[in-house]
Write a structure and sequence with these properties.
The protein has 12 helices and 12 strands. With 332 residues, it is an alpha/beta fold. The strands form 2 sheets. It has a 6-stranded parallel sheet with strand order 2-1-3-4-5-11, sandwiched between helices. The protein starts with 6 loop residues before the first helix and ends in a 10-residue tail after the last strand. The relative contact order is 0.12. It comes from Thermotoga maritima (strain ATCC 43589 / DSM 3109 / JCM 10099 / NBRC 100826 / MSB8). This is Transcriptional regulator, LacI family. InterPro entries: HTH_LacI, LacI/GalR-like_sensor, Lambda_DNA-bd_dom_sf, Peripla_BP_I.
């Protein structure tokens, strides 16, 4: 019978000490990227699995859930985490949260850490970029996993999202109805979420036969909204930002140009963060129920952990327009 590989075998093949492998298994970030790569290759080649992985992932008894987010400073993602945590905590689970800073390679490092900490399941808001190493890890360990907010094509796992296309489309409908005839759309990171929102905008430009519009590409951050506004070839009737953080950056950039929102230009966002109604001017935006997204992700993951059959793989929550002070009616 073939001998089961040990941590000693991994250390020998990787050319490192046993303590280095042990540190890596506890927290991959505790060793250099170069050493981590050698250890990963040795583990893969040997087929090494610590006992707690081989046993814990089958029995699901750690009562720990891993949550991967692309940006832990973004309040939207933290609200999603809160929704999932509130539901799962009542079921006796604790959370480990890892932020990738929008880097695909960090998704792999964090997921490896979750695996070696024997989590029962994982909720992921991914970077949105193709990551073969991530897919390989998920398939190798048969992880119980749910994607939230951003899709990941090619991985057979449930997805919780919102009607991004419809949200932006209805916002354009409202702006056209209130007399706006020229537009700028500021697009965030080109994830599935950003693409769906952009498609909603372009669909309405085509529907209303509007030719006077600009599309600029950036990130879902305050700084990006600010910088993209500086790059506009001309100021339109309305600027539609990919999310609320970008919209706040837009408003600040317009102020520096001596323009007043909404008197000179209307500005809208997407998210309806808790402070959007307190901003000056209060922000007209598309509301998505971030807390409910997290809660639904928690419910679906709990069902997977409990061995229940999932009736559907995709859950799309509705969005709604919230009208506040950052839009002004424009009539000839």
């Amino acid at each position: 019978m073939k001998r089961r590989p040990t941590i000693n075998d991994v250390a020998k093949l990787a050319g490192v000490s046993i303590s280095t492998v042990s540190r890596y298994l506890k927290d991959p970030s505790q060793v250099s990227e170069k050493l981590g790569e050698r250890i990963r290759e040795a583990i893969k080649k040997l087929g090494y699995k610590p006992n707690k992985i081989a046993q814990g992932l089958r029995t699901g008894d750690s009562k720990m859930i891993g949550f991967i987010v692309p940006d832990i400073t973004n309040p939207a993602f933290l609200t999603i985490v809160k929704g999932a945590e509130d539901f799962l905590r009542k079921k006796g689970y604790s959370f480990i949260i890892g932020g990738t800073d929008h880097k695909s390679k960090d998704e792999v490092v964090i997921l490896e850490s979750f695996i070696f900490h024997n989590v029962d399941g994982v909720i992921v808001t991914c970077t949105g970029y193709e990551n073969k190493a991530l897919k390989e890890l998920i398939e190798r360990y048969h992880l119980k996993l749910v994607f939230v907010d951003r899709r990941y094509p090619g991985i057979d796992a449930p997805y919780i999202g919102v009607d991004n296309f419809g949200g932006v489309a209805r916002m354009v409908d409202y702006l056209v109805e209130t007399g706006h005839r020229s537009f700028a759309y500021l697009c965030g990171d080109m994830t599935s979420t950003a693409k769906e929102r952009l498609e909603g905008f372009l669909d309405r430009m085509k529907k209303y036969k509007i030719k006077d519009y600009q599309v600029l590409y950036g990130e879902f951050t305050f700084e990006s909204g600010y910088k993209l506004t500086k790059r506009l070839s001309k100021i339109p009737d309305a600027i539609i930002a990919g999310n609320d953080l970008m919209a706040f950056g837009v408003i600040e950039a317009l102020k520096e140009r001596g323009l007043v929102v909404p008197e000179d230009v209307s500005v809208t966002g997407f998210d309806d963060m808790f402070f959007s109604k307190y901003y000056k001017p209060s922000l007209t935006t598309v509301r998505q129920d971030l807390y409910e997204m997290g809660k639904q992700a928690g419910k679906v993951l709990f069902a997977l952990i409990s061995g229940k059959k999932i009736r559907k793989k995709e859950y799309i929550l509705p969005t709604e327009i919230v009208i506040r002070d950052s839009v002004k009616e424009r009539r000839a």
